[in-house]
């Protein structure tokens, strides 16, 4: 934090291809993709927990 160049500005990460809202998928498609991604991640974490000897209920 003491550096002069410290910045939490993340606007440079903006995906320019999504600037035009006409290019965005429908909200339902976005929601479905998020759900699928979260379910996949959860399944992977369950496997990791199992490998660590933890029982995780579904």
Explain this structure.
The chain is mainly α and 58 residues long. The protein has one helix and no strands. The chain has one helix at residues 27-51. The radius of gyration is 19 Å and the shape is flat.
Features:
single chain; mainly alpha; 58 residues
Approximate shape? flat
Radius of gyration, in angstroms, nearest whole number: 19 Å
Into which percent range does the helicity of residues fall?
Answer: 40-55%
Mean pLDDT: 81
Largest sheet: none
Structural classification: mainly alpha
**What oligomeric state is this?**
single chain
Q: Helix-strand pattern, N to C?
A: H
- Return residue spans where pLDDT drops below 50 for at least 5 consecutive residues: none
The fraction of residues in strands falls at under 5%
How many distinct beta strands?
Answer: 0
Gap from first CA to last CA: 42 Å
Count of helical regions: 1
């Amino acid at each position: 934090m003491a550096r002069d160049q410290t910045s939490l500005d993340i606007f440079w990460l903006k995906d320019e291809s999504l600037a035009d809202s006409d290019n965005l998928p429908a909200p339902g498609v976005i929601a479905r993709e998020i759900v699928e991604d979260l379910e996949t991640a959860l399944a992977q974490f369950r496997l990791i927990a199992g490998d660590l000897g933890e029982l995780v209920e579904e």
